[in-house]
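ugh finaly. both done.
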Amino acid sequence: MQLLFLLAALLLVLIAIVLYFVSARSYESADTVANSYDRWTEDGILEFYWGEHIHLGYYGSPPQPKDFLEAKSDFVREMARWGGLDKRSPGTTVLDVGCGIGGSSRILAKDYGFSVTGITISPQQVKRARELTPADLDAKFEVDDAMSLSFPDASFDVVWSIEAGPHMPNKAIFAKELLRVLKPGGILVVADWNQRDDRQDPLNFWERPVMRQLLDQWSHPAFSSIEEFAELLAATGLTEGEVVTADWTEQTLPSWLDTIWQGIVRPQGWMRFGISGFVKSVREVPTLLLMRFAFGVGLCRFGMFRGIRGSR
């Protein structure tokens, strides 16, 4: 019986690997991204293993062992501290761009007293975010496109975004939209997956196919470098002074293997979501390992960005 179980598990792993190579989820349009997140939200697997925060965790520098879900909540609070949001008064208006199912928005509303509007291109994420948000919390959620935000100029005191940039086909437009809806004197704070600056150090023969695979698996049109996106923010002409950046690759790196470890220490998820859920989960393992490799060798970097909106 045990042998049969092992053989069945091996077969599922092989199927998942085949699916990984033959069924890429390449970026085609905003609909590609929306449909991908709709499916991930509807089946519940991503939420089961990643919790309310569809982003990496913060483990410190040097990284310390930490509960995976706790690390994600810690990331939000560390980002708020790094961005200077912990000094902002209750009632501060915040736009959470790429809010997922609202985990960051709820922390910003509950812990800091902010008035938060979360936007995502996925209707299913908005539906789930609303379900998870208590009625007495000042956080609301809407479907919107970060490449063409529906809000008027200078609408928010803070614009916040975690790991949304890789889904944006035009990083210059994304940068301008983030700053356009920010009030003069308001704070922009962004966290994103980036690649090495290939203008100075071009990708070599093996890095190009690795990057292509990372883009194609999760509906990413392109990664920018930390340096390039900071330049694009400054080039909008809307920033006051220097755009401050930081590299949090070290602080977030354990997240990739912790994600895989969740499937091992919480096998009840496989039973809860059945064979198809197990295959979907295992299918992500090659991408997670490839992400860990790319961030570990410096091909990818975790970038932090902070800027102030000028008076123009």
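ok and the 2nd:
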Amino acid sequence: MKYEDIVEGKFISRPNRFIAQVEIEGVETTVHVKNTGRCRELLLPGCTVYLEKAKNPERKTPYDLVAVDTPIGIINIDSQAPNVVVKEWLDRQYYDFIKPEYKYGNSRIDFYMEKGDNKFLMEVKGCTLIKDGIGYFPDAPTERGVKHLRELTAAIERGYKAMIAFVIQVEGVNEVRPNIDTHPEFGVALQEAINAGVEVLYLCSMVKPDELCITSCNKYQ
């Protein structure tokens, strides 16, 4: 995926989950943050951030903060980007049918696919928390994530092939582990899913200020 109009700025502060103060060409500007996670280890005062200009000139926040420069490289923090790039990637995987936002049980699973007689369910998670070259998810407790894992686990018993795909939103990282320090229950649910036959994919990315795309896929062994 490509962003249309990217500008560079310097991060100042984040008053709440939805907005940040950023210096753009010497002017302090209130911008929208496209990630409601904590991102405390990323959004540090003075760091370089990348912002997409809003298409609506009347919007109160004229930019969306989508990426941040860090010592390990540019990290895309746009929480909407993983589903976009996964759809692009799935289109190259020769499925017969792909449906995003598939209603299943009491949830909407990110993708439903068909290939031959097989039916697939895939839930997508973006990973921006990196420690010592390893990705960790989640960066904040996610009851929704636990719910999705348990629904994927139950789907296996109903004949579906189920997958959870972690989109790693920085280059050079090829593995994601459950962040049990932050949310132990997610780690338990992930292991239960693996034991039931849910496939875990690590989708490695190319990341630029104005671009994110999946370059390779590793699988949990």
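summary for the 2nd one i guess: The chain has two domains: 6-71, 81-219.
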